[in-house]
Amino acid sequence: MNLPNSLTLVRIFLIPLLVVVLLTNFEGAVIFGVGKELVAAAIFGVAALTDWLDGFLARRRKQVTTFGQLMDPLADKLLITAALVSLVQMGLAPAWMVAVIVGRELGVTVLRSVAYSKGVTLSASPLGKAKMMAQVIAIVTLILGREHLQEFFVLGQVALWMAVVTALVSAGEYYARFLRACAHSSVSDFEAARWRATRKEVPGAEAQARHDQANIASRS
């Protein structure tokens, strides 16, 4: 287990801790003398920092692995979803806006999975990164604006709107890239090659295919 992958796992382990801190009614709303909003914002900030750090270290150390490529985006989606759903429960974010953002994440994940099965990789777009940044800012400022800095709450609402808009626009961009990629001839060649390989793995499949083709030709 290398350092980038360890940071990804740390982010996943911080998610339930964040939810507990946000949704538990602590006595006096403090944890070890510190307001729970500050603690929650700190936990989320550390988790969001590992999102950037694990990717940076993986590229710098040349430690990009299949585990990291799969778990890193999953950890991001779990973190953002858990934080946003908690904010809805706390009355700090509209449920419909959170539903749009979470729905976008699920839709893009499905598109990426289908594209990957066809031998195509849909890399992160600049709009997707802007969306992630808007989400992080929105979550942190909404948490802090609840009790401590009321002006942050307005900033959080603006950032949340930006997150919704960029989520919708980037979803459309991903879908357009998906259609263009799947229409490319190399994708069709990949599908045909995979079909031929699958047929050869089944005992007698090739002979059966020739037999079927002969039957069709004799009937025509």
Note the main attributes of this structure:
220 residues; mainly alpha; Four Helix Bundle (Hemerythrin (Met), subunit A); two-stranded antiparallel sheet; 8 helices; 2 strands
Give a structural overview.
It is a single chain. This protein is an all-alpha fold and 220 residues long. It has one domain (3-183): Four Helix Bundle (Hemerythrin (Met), subunit A). It contains eight helices and two strands, in the order H-E-E-H-H-H-H-H-H-H. The protein has helices at residues 3-23, 36-60, 66-89, 95-117, 126-144, 150-182, 185-201, 205-219, and strands at 30-31, 34-35. The protein has a two-stranded antiparallel ribbon with strand order 1-2. Strand 1 and strand 2 (34-35) form a beta hairpin. Helix 4 (95-117) packs parallel to helix 6. The radius of gyration is 23 Å and the shape is globular.
Task: List the SSEs and their pairings.
Blueprint: H1 3-23, E1 30-31, E2 34-35, H2 36-60, H3 66-89, H4 95-117, H5 126-144, H6 150-182, H7 185-201, H8 205-219
Antiparallel strand pairs: 1-2
Helix pairs in contact: 1-2, 1-3, 2-3, 2-5, 3-4, 3-5, 4-6, 5-6
